[in-house]
């Protein structure tokens, strides 16, 4: 992507800053009988990490721990005395005569210690640049043989190079556990680790537990990644690895570049597991993802043999061939009872049972599943069939389809995951199989722009950079425009008035396509058969001939497949006409807001339209020779060609309307646009910028997703506007409910829908500086793994805050800013 070089250099620069003060002299290790007391620290060689004493949050207690030296916030990665704080500054870490690390309080009481199995002659303690505090014997040449390491005893953070899981030889289980709260690093209820049952040949799985209860489950490792967790795919800057052999079973990751810092955190306060990336430039952690991300991530929400489908109402379904155990409870949205078979298995005659294939599911909990890596799928099926209590099977390795996983008992914690390709075969009596050879199949992801290789982080940089650059960018764009306004001859085909009159059959009523903001639009056909749309500017529009020409010139220079093409114009006497290419499918509003037409626009088409409009707008804002603020983006200004490709129309026209000299300051006394789409700062203060277009775009996205007009929508009881409704749903984790009811029945990529809603909400944020630029929007729409910032409160939250609700077609052309808006 084109931003790469520029932003890469930024990353490198940021890294340089990060390590800049690493040259301070500091020790990275202590030898025998040396110590670190409160007030002194160890600093790793490159200066990345520091070990010392600290007080967390508002606490006065002292803890010994490790933190990122150059990160000022949420930087503690490991704590020694998690539950044994020291109440003064007398803490001291040293090695005692047996070579153990001991943390002493007032020189005598041992607050924390290591338990080595053997005597160490010459203990040396070193803080590594990975964040690992290691203890080894200097007499022992083998540099990697640590007698003890902090990485074996994680706190709430999982760092690159750590192993989450088991050292089977030592019987060591490494689990991450959340802090109780911000002031207390003692382990809280949340912990995260790898669980399996070696004796029963179960397959290792990752669980987050809340107290004793399973809370989150990633799905078993399928040879490539964790089943059902798209975020844990390898990505541009993190490599994940899973190791499963006789000695060790663990999960680890490393960073592909030194300039990126990425960590996992388990946070009790928010009850989430998060992946954060440090952005040095912004001095903040960027949330890359956080789970549970929706209802369906709640462990076992739908009970045994239930399937959780996010976006459906209710979210829980029974697997095919099953029915709710208690329909009454199920109807009351208590799904914990799960589902039972419609027809019992016929175990007497084994031949009569078979299997139904399901694709697109997160594999069920494997606690009671058996694994045999040496069987193939055919053997697996035979084996499962031969044992009446075997409920389902699947191959354990998607890479080559090898291995056999067999489930016994109810199938727990299944959810629909559109990206999951692995098949699950569920045992069914012959009678169920006869009904239909149904297969649950998920929709494949369609990316917005060609390259899916957009780096998460890079996307983020683009986003942040742009949000900063906003005001500057806007100013530049306005200056550019003003300078371009010098006299030049029009290079646009001029049409004769008689030609147009003939083409439109004398502007006949039957050829009238509609009423645009500035006058009627007619369909016409030129002599060669080319179809055109003619916009006739009404005489009262007050637009001067020169400005009209300049504006036409500006438009004719714009070439983009998502902008409607201006073919020419006609200026004769009082008549001012613009001739455009004709769009067979008319405008977007005629589809999305119409009960019958709405069905014709399925989700993939709608997504294509959203992406197309985004690209068109990006072109206007950034890529075209002239920078243009559209100021009147709305559904009726998005035209659709034969293939439903969106074309923005009416562009730029609004800008010169009325010829207001104040434009260069990004402020106008004439507020022109359409209520429901105009950004609050524009409506109330006449301030416009590319960010007011972004606002309109956000409204458009929410309309396309919901099929509801922003101008006529508000929830009766709460008085919420469309933006507020969408935002509230998102906060409650029910954003998918915004989706147009016409689209509910068909299968589509729900993550894509959610992403669009999320992006839409980012665009309609109240504060202009919070809104992303269109280049970020295009990146965000295209990347299915990019984690988006959480949107702040949108503009027009309550009905009472928004201007009086006008029907969408009534464009308001002039408002003086001195008084309150909207009469
Ligand atoms: C700190 O704790 C010790 C016991 O560990 C106790 O004797 C001492 O009084 C405490 N000091 C303060 C200031 O609370
Ligand atoms: C060193 O510390 C360990 C752990 O506290 C303890 O078991 C051991 O007895 C200590 N050795 C001596 C000589 O104090
Ligand atoms: C700890 O011991 C050192 C030297 O052994 C001594 O200087 C210091 O005063 C002692 N501190 C306390 C709190 O007893
Ligand atoms: C947990 O997350 C909250 C909200 O992001 C944050 O304020 C808090 O500091 C986090 N807690 C810890 C222990 O990091
Ligand atoms: C093995 O699994 C069975 C149930 O399938 C369970 O009853 C048994 O306790 C498990 N064995 C071990 C050692 O956990
Ligand atoms: C549950 O809801 C379904 C559909 O609404 C209805 O047909 C059924 O009678 C209800 N069952 C019970 C037990 O309420
Ligand atoms: C749901 O039903 C189960 C019994 O099947 C019961 O234990 C549980 O309390 C119910 N949950 C709620 C929220 O009512
Ligand atoms: C795994 O399957 C192979 C081939 O069917 C069989 O020989 C072997 O005994 C099985 N292993 C276990 C532990 O069941
Ligand atoms: C079926 O599998 C279960 C669980 O592995 C086992 O306990 C049982 O003995 C098996 N039954 C037969 C008939 O093989």
Notable features of this structure?
single chain, 823 residues, alpha+beta, Agglutinin, subunit A, Hepatocyte Growth Factor, 43 strands, 26% strand, disordered N terminus, disordered C terminus, binds 2-acetamido-2-deoxy-beta-D-glucopyranose
Question: In short, what is this structure?
Answer:
The chain is α+β, with helices and mostly antiparallel strands and 823 residues long. It has 15 helices and 43 strands.
Written overview of the protein:
- The protein has five domains: 1-153, Agglutinin, subunit A (Orthogonal Prism); 155-293, no CATH class; 296-433, Hepatocyte Growth Factor; 468-581, Phosphorylase Kinase, domain 1 (2-Layer Sandwich), CATH 3.30.200; 589-816, Transferase(Phosphotransferase) domain 1 (Transferase(Phosphotransferase), domain 1), CATH 1.10.510.
- It starts with a helix and ends in a 41-residue tail after the last helix.
- Helices cover 21% and strands 26% of the residues.
- Helix 12 (690-706) runs antiparallel to helix 14.
- Residues 1-25, 436-490, 656-665 and 799-823 have low confidence and may be disordered.
- It is built from 15 helices and 43 strands.
- By secondary structure, it is α+β, with helices and mostly antiparallel strands.
- Strand 23 and strand 24 (284-291) form a beta hairpin.
- It binds 2-acetamido-2-deoxy-beta-D-glucopyranose (9 copies).
- Residues 96-98, 100, 102, 110, 113 line the site of one 2-acetamido-2-deoxy-beta-D-glucopyranose.
């Amino acid at each position: 992507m084109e931003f790469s070089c520029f932003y890469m250099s930024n990353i490198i620069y940021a890294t340089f800053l990060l390590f800049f003060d690493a040259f301070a002299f500091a020790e990275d290790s202590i030898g025998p009988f040396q110590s670190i007391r409160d007030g002194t620290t160890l600093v790793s060689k490159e200066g990345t990490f520091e070990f010392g004493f600290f007080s967390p949050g508002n606490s006065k207690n002292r803890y010994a721990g490790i933190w990122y030296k150059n990160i000022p916030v949420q930087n503690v990665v490991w704590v020694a005395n998690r539950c044994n704080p020291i109440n003064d500054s007398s803490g001291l870490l040293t090695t005692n005569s047996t070579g153990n690390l001991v943390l002493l309080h007032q020189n005598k009481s041992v607050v924390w210690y290591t338990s080595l199995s053997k005597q160490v002659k010459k203990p040396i303690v070193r803080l590594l640049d990975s964040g690992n505090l290691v203890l080894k014997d200097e007499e022992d040449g083998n540099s990697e043989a640590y007698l003890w390491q902090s990485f074996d005893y994680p706190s709430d953070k999982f760092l690159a190079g750590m192993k989450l899981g088991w050292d089977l030889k030592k019987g060591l289980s490494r689990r991450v556990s959340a802090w109780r709260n911000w002031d207390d690093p003692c382990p809280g209820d949340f912990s995260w680790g790898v669980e399996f049952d070696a004796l029963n040949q179960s397959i290792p799985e990752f669980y987050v537990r809340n107290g004793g209860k399973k809370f989150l489950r990633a799905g078993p490792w399928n040879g490539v990644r964790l089943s059902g967790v798209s975020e844990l795919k390898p990505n541009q800057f993190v490599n994940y690895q899973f190791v499963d052999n006789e000695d060790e079973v663990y999960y680890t990751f490393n960073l592909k570049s030194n300039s990126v810092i990425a960590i996992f955190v388990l946070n009790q306060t928010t009850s989430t597991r998060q992946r954060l990336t440090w952005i040095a430039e912004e001095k903040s952690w960027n949330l890359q993802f956080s789970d549970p991300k929706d209802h369906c991530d709640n462990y076992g929400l739908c009970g045994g043999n239930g399937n959780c489908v996010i976006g459906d109402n209710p979210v829980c379904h029974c697997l095919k061939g099953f029915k709710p155990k208690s329909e009454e409870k199920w109807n009351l949205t208590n799904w914990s009872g799960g589902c039972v078979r419609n027809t019992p298995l016929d175990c007497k005659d084994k031949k009569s049972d078979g299997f139904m294939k399901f694709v697109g599911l997160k594999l069920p909990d494997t606690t009671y599943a058996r694994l045999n890596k040496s069987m193939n799928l055919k053997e697996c099926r035979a084996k499962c069939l031969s044992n009446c209590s075997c409920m389902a099977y699947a191959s354990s390795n998607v890479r080559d389809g090898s291995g056999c996983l067999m489930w016994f008992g109810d199938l727990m914690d299944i959810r629909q995951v559109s990206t999951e390709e692995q098949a699950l075969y569920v045992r069914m009596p012959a009678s169920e199989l006869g009904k239909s050879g149904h297969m649950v199949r998920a929709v494949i992801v369609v990316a917005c722009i060609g390259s899916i290789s957009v780096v998460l982080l890079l996307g983020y940089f683009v986003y942040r950079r742009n949000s900063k650059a906003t005001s500057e960018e806007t100013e530049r764009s306005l200056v550019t425009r003003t300078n371009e306004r010098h006299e030049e001859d029009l290079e646009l085909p001029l049409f004769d008035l008689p030609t147009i009159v003939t083409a439109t059959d004398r502007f006949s009523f039957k050829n009238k396509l509609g009423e645009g903001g500035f006058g009627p639009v007619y369909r016409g056909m030129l002599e060669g058969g080319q179809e055109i749309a003619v916009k006739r500017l009404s005489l009262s529009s007050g637009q001067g001939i020169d400005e009209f020409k300049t504006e036409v010139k500006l438009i004719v220079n714009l070439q983009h497949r998502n902008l409607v093409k201006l073919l020419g114009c006609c200026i004769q006497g009082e008549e001012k006409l613009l001739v455009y290419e004709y769009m067979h499918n008319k405008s977007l509003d005629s589809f999305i807001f119409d009960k019958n037409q709405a069905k014709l626009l399925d989700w993939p088409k709608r997504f294509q339209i959203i992406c197309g409009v985004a690209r068109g707008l990006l072109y206007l804002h950034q890529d075209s020779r002239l920078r243009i603020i559209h100021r009147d983006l709305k559904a009726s200004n998005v035209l659709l060609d034969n293939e439903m490709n969106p074309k923005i129309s009416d562009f730029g026209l609004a800008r010169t309307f009325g010829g207001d000299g104040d434009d260069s300051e990004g402020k106008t006394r004439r507020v022109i646009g359409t209520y429901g789409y105009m950004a609050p700062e524009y409506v109330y203060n006449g301030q416009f910028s590319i960010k007011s277009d972004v606002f309109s775009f956000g409204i458009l996205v929410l309309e396309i997703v919901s099929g509801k007009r922003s101008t006529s929508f508000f929830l009766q009881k709460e008085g919420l506007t469309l933006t507020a409704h969408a935002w509230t749903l998102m906060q409650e984790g029910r954003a998918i409910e915004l989706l147009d009811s016409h689209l509910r029945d068909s299968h589509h990529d729900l993550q894509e829908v959610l992403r669009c809603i999320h992006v839409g909400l980012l665009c309609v944020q109240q504060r202009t500086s919070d809104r992303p630029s269109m280049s970020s929007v295009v990146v965000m729409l295209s990347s299915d793994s990019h984690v988006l910032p959480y949107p702040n409160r949108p503009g027009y939250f309550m009905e009472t805050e928004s201007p009086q609700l006008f029907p969408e077609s009534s464009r308001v052309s002039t408002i003086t800013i001195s008084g309150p808006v909207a009469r």
